[in-house]
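Late entry, written up from scratch paper. The run itself happened at the end of the previous shift, but nothing got recorded in the book at the time, so transcribing now.
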Amino acid sequence: MKHYFSILIFIAFLLSVSPVSATHKVYVIHGYASPLALVRKLNRHLKKEHYNTEIYQYKSVYSELDSIGKKLYDDLKNANVDTVSFVTHSMGGLVVRSLFQYASKDANFPHIYRVVMIAPPNKGAEMADIFDSFKMLKKLLGPNVKNMRTDSTSYANRLPQPNTTVGIVIGMRGKKKGYNPYIKNDNDGFISVEKMRLENESDVFFTKADHVFVVRKKVVLKQTVAFLRNGQFTHQ
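Output as recorded:
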């Protein structure tokens, strides 16, 4: 009997000192002026693959990118998770890069595991240059059009490189000229291929798709899961 109780006490001790298994959550971040319906298919697919997910909703048009990144940081500080990953569409990639400004200085922030950026304007978007040139539209379109300009002083080009494993999905036409004739070289209708790249991404997946609907393509859904699992795309 004494031996039996000794075993129970030892097991209780192990349970008390053993770390609780890490909780991981994937946040799906939509883009500028984007309806949530556009990323719901992606979110459903991640749930089918047994990921704990949440679509992070924010005011993309009238809130400054920096304040959105700070709010995301604050919200995740209060979330009951140990590790987070992000799957972003369009401007959502800049929201996550803005988050890194705050998270990288906080040792207690949840570990950022992996990031999949789909059609991100990492070096700005040529369509933002075009829209920002119309003075009459500036108030209507909000501050983030200017933040996504391609010039070197824009917010997009001043953000730090994310210090984690990043995969980028790039939509394109697959020809010398892209979907938008007003943008040089191949593009997805909003951003040229080269403007979507970072300097330190781990992997890149190219697919024929336009900027809006690339996030709903079946192959993109599969490649997103592949990167979250393995840190690389399958390229099949």
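The beta strands are 24-29, 53-56, 83-89, 111-118, 165-172, 203-208.
(Scratch paper discarded after transcription.)
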